[in-house]
Design brief:
By secondary structure, the chain is an all-alpha fold. The chain contains 7 helices and no strands.
Length: 153
C-alpha cells in the first residue's frame, strides 16, 4: 500500500537502515520481494556499510538471502569490518544462507582483502567454537579463504 502511494524506498533510519535492510534483517521475505520488485536498491548500505544481504546472512534468513542473490546483490561487498555476507553467514552459523563465491577473478570473498580488519580463517573459526567447524571451514576455503594469513589488529 505504501509503495503504491509513492513511498520513498531510499529513506533510512538514523543508523542507515532502509526498508529493505529491515525486511532482510527480520526475515520479512514477502515484504522484501515487494520492495525489490518496486525498485529498491539491493546494494544500498547502512551506517556500517552492510547491504541487506549482510543482514539476511547475519540473522539466518535463507528466503531473503536467496531473493537478494537472485536480484543481483553484490556478493563481495565488504562492510566497515572488512566482512562480506559469506563471513556473516559463517560467523553466525547460518550455513544455509551462505552465498556462493562471486565469479569475478581476484574479487571473491577472500578473508584478508587488503584490509587489516578483515576476518581470517583462524578468527572465523575461533568465533564459531560451538558451531560445526568443518562446515564453516569448507565454506570459507571453497570461497578462497587465505588460510595462512593472520589479521592485524
Amino acid at each position: 500500500m505504501l509503495i503504491e502511494a509513492g513511498a520513498d524506498l531510499t529513506l533510512t533510519t538514523n543508523e542507515g537502515y532502509s526498508a529493505l535492510h529491515l525486511a532482510a534483517d527480520h526475515g520479512f521475505h514477502l515484504c522484501l520481494e515487494q520492495l525489490i520488485d518496486a525498485g529498491a536498491d539491493v546494494n544500498m548500505v547502512d551506517g556500517d556499510r552492510n547491504t541487506p544481504l549482510h543482514l539476511a546472512c547475519d540473522t539466518g534468513r535463507p528466503a531473503c538471502t536467496a531473493r537478494l542473490i537472485q536480484s543481483g546483490v553484490a556478493l563481495n561487498h565488504a562492510n566497515n569490518m572488512g566482512a562480506n555476507a559469506l563471513h556473516a553467514a559463517c560467523l553466525n552459523g547460518h550455513f544455509e544462507c551462505a552465498p556462493p563465491p562471486a565469479p569475478e577473478p581476484n574479487h571473491g570473498p577472500k578473508l584478508s582483502p587488503n584490509s587489516t580488519r578483515a576476518p581470517t580463517l583462524a578468527l572465523a573459526m575461533s568465533l564459531t567454537l560451538t558451531l560445526p567447524l568443518t562446515r564453516c571451514a569448507v565454506l570459507l576455503i571453497e570461497a578462497g579463504a587465505l588460510v595462512n594469513e593472520v589479521a592485524q589488529s
